[in-house]
Amino acid sequence: MDEVGRGCFAGPVVACAVIMPEGYADPRIIDSKKIAEKKREVIAESIRRNAVDYAFGVVCNQVIDRINILRATKQAMHMALSRLKTPYDNIIVDAVRLNVSVPIENPFKAEDSHMCVAAASILAKVYRDSMMKKLHMTYPEYGWYSNKGYGAKVHLDALKKYGATELHRMSFLKNADIKR
Predict the structure, then answer these.
(1) How confident is the chain (180 residues) per 10-residue block, as mean pLDDT?
(2) Secondary structure element (H or E) that encloses residue 63, with its range
(3) What phi and psi values does residue 169 have, to the nearest 5 degrees?
(4) Nearest 5 degrees, angle CA 143-CA 155-CA 37?
(5) Dihedral pair phi/psi, residue 62, rounded to 5°
């Protein structure tokens, strides 16, 4: 399991839990941040075709502001796990401790050493990126099509000029003196 969107200024945090077939290997499946967007989409399709099961958990920016990003990330992860239809007997997650009833490993940079975590990273990234591209149509001035809600210059400039939208994480912007 892995998540994406923890450091964004806008949009949700998304977690993905994935179960890959035992012994499955694909050398293209590495940390999503190390793969170009178009290639990542192709690999994600292959993961979806070959996975035994996968599911997503999405927690919106309002909840992130209310409970904090770490708790929201854990909530998204529990959501993803609860949506799996296939039983599992252990969990590997990237550096997040969860209270679960099965054995769990949470090594730092797990996506570099566990292909299943890298697969979850790719699926979560493609899923969230798609959401942000759709939201870009409503708020094109923020550049979400390319920056996906992260703090790129075009996004920061738009925040200063237009203020925050209802999709922004105000808890992330409070020190920047940005208003809605």
Answers:
(1) 96 98 95 95 98 98 97 98 97 94 94 96 98 96 96 94 95 80
(2) helix 61-67
(3) -90, 100
(4) 50
(5) -65, -40
**SS3 of the chain: helix, strand, coil, percent, to 5:** 50, 15, 35
Q: Give the closest residue to 149 by CA, choosing from 171, 131, 124, 175.
A: 131
Residue 17: count of CB within 10 angstroms of its CB? 28
User: Could you give phi then psi for residue 159, rounded to 5 degrees?
Assistant: -60, -40
How far is CA 33 from each of CA 7, 18, 105, 120, 125, rounded to the nearest angstrom?
13, 18, 21, 12, 9
Distances in whole angstroms, Cα of residue 7 to Cα of each of 52, 76, 80, 81, 111: 30, 15, 19, 22, 18
- Residue 60, H or E segment: none
Neighbours of 150 (CB within 10 A): 17
Q: Which own/partner pairs from 155-162 qualify as long-range (CB within 8 Å, at least 24 positions apart)?
A: 155/9, 155/10, 159/9
| C-alpha R_g of the chain | 17
What is the tens place of the pLDDT at every residue in 80-128? 999 999 999 999 999 999 999 999 999 999 999 999 999 999 999 999 9
- 3-class DSSP state for residue 104? strand
The token pair that represents 44 in the structure block: 């994600």
